[in-house]
Amino acid sequence: MTQRTAGIHHITAFVPGPQETVDFYSGILGLRLVKKTINFDAPEVYHLYFGDEMGHPGTIITFFPWPGSRRGRIGGGQVGVTTYAIPPETLDFWEERLRRFKVSVEKRERFGETVLRFHDPSGLVLELVEREEGKNSAWSFGGIPADHAIKGFGGAVLYSLSPEKTARLLEQVFGMEKIGEDGSYVRYKTAGDLGNIIDINVKPVEPGNGGAGTVHHIAWRAKDDEEHAAWRNKLAGLGYQVTPIVDRQYFNAVYFREEGGILFEIATDPPGFARDEPVDKLGEKLMLPDWYEEQRKLIEANLEPIEVRILKEDQV
C-alpha cells in the first residue's frame, strides 16, 4: 500500500511583534491561541500556535515572534502563500470584515476558485477560499460566529527553485494526486479534507530571503509514531538528509530540505495540545518543557507580555 500524507500538519513563520501577531490572528482572523510556549532552541523568543478549538492538525499556524527582526523576502525555496478554508457563502463576510479592520484585500481567481488575498502585519501572504470539505470550526471569537469561522488550512502555494523535483516528491513520495494545471501553477491534492490542496509554480521562482514575514517551514501529517518512523526511513532511503526524530512536546518531528529548497517537516498528529493544559484553558499559560521549568522566572521576565483581546472594532 502506498504511503500517503493526509496533508498539512502546520505551517511555521517568522514575525516581529508578539502582540500584533495575537491581535491579527486571534483578534481579526478569530483563530484560537492554543499554545503559548517558547522556541526550544532560543528560549528568549515565544513560539505561538493558533488553530481551531483544539488546534487539530491541518489548522495550526505557528510563529516565532522576534521583536526588531529584519524583514525577509518571499521567494523561491519557501511557502509563498498560506491558504485558509472558510465555509461556503462567507467570502463577502470576510471581505467586509478585513476592510473594516483596514486590511487591504484583493480578489483573485485560481483553478476556478475566487480567493481573497491579503497580508498580515509582517507581510506574510494569506488567502481565504470557500470550501465545502472539512468540518466547520467550533471556535467563535470577537465578531466571528462559529459558522463563519476559518475551518483550517485550505492548502498552500509552494515557491520552488526546482518545480519539477518538488512536484515529483509530492506525487511519487508523498502520494499526492495531480488534479490540474492553471497557467502558472500545477495543483496537487492529498488524502485529507483540510490542508489538502497544494499548488506549485510551473517556472522556478527567484530565491527568497528568510526573515520576518516569511514561512520557515511547512509540516506534513503522520498519523502516529509508527507511520512517522516509516516516513523517516523512506526519505533517508531515497537519499534525503533527514534529521533524527525530535520531540516537540505536542508532536514528534523530522526535518529535511527538499530539492526545490523548501524546508519540509513531517509531524505526528498525536499527542496534541491538550497534553499539558485543560481544553478550556488552552493558550492561557506560558507552557515550558521540563528542562526549562527551573528558568521560568527569567524566561517570563524576558518575554513581552501578550493577551488575547477583543479589538475595538468588535466591541459594541
From TrEMBL:
It holds the Pfam family Glyoxalase. The keyword Translocase does not apply. Transmembrane segments: none annotated. Residues 7-131, 152-269 form the VOC domain. The keyword Transcription regulation does not apply. GO terms for molecular function: dioxygenase activity. It comes from the Bacteria. It comes from Paenibacillus faecis. This is Ring-cleaving dioxygenase. Keywords: Dioxygenase, Oxidoreductase. Gene3D superfamilies: 2,3-Dihydroxybiphenyl 1,2-Dioxygenase, domain 1. PROSITE patterns: VOC (PS51819).
